[in-house]
Structure formats: C-alpha cells, structure tokens
Design a protein that fits this description.
five-stranded antiparallel beta sheet; alpha+beta; 2 domains; DUF6495
Amino acid sequence: MKYARLTKEQFEELHQEFINFLATQSITAEEWEDIKKNKPEAAEQELDVFSDLVWYGVLNKVEYLEHISPQQLHLFKCKEKDMHLIALKINNEAIDLTTKDGFAWLRDNLLSDSIEFYNAKKDYSDDKLMDIFTLIQQGANITKGELFQYFEKLIGQK
C-alpha cells in the first residue's frame, strides 16, 4: 500500500464505490463475504488497493492545503511542478490561531510587528502526490484556497 488505509468511517462513506470496485474485479457480494471469512489476507489486500485508488484520486485534485497551529499558519498552493508556501509566524504566545479569538486577533493585527511573513517555493520530489500526502499526514487540510489567495494578494505575489 502506497498511502494509508481508509478508516472504517471512510469505507462506510464510500460503500457504494467499494462495491463498484469489487464488481470491476468480478467479485460478487457472496464472494466478498467468503474472501473476508476464508482469506483475510486477500481481503486486506483488496482494502489496501481500494484505499490507494481513493487516495490517488483525491491527491490528484488537491490545489490548496492549510496547516494551522497555535502560532503558525502554513498555506500551500500545489502547482504542477512545485508548491508555493505562504507562512505566518506569530511571536506572541498569548495568541492561538486555532481559536476564533486568535484568528480574529490575526485579522485585526496583520501589520503588527508580532507577525512574520514567509514566502517560498519548493520543487516536488520525484513523487508529487506523496509530497502532498505527507503534508496531509502531518496535519494539513485540503481547502479551496481562500486564505492562500487572500494572503497572496496581501503580499503581492503570484
């Protein structure tokens, strides 16, 4: 398995897609029950293959990621050949960007000396999708990019 197995909840959400996946392999519901019961290692392999297919589809569509921690905000734009990062570091431990109040403070104090802005570009490794997956595993969330676009305009970068 290249990425990570989907959670039980994710499999439940994708129940119909998993049935379709099994059908593409000519595995009926009865055969699937038999595989789970008598060949658990084969069932595990099918779950892993399906998980990787789902991850591959998701990762291919990612355009923006955000990782927010109490004093830092990392905003990523996933382009074709590289990734653009806009990061903010808050030099005030009383501020917690993971809270509504902390985010309101950021909005109201963008020009404060307590905020450091960083802007960087990084080429992908040989495996762009794994680079994106690693960021997700480290806590980044897939977004529509509103925050990235806001700060991109603010700092005047394209």
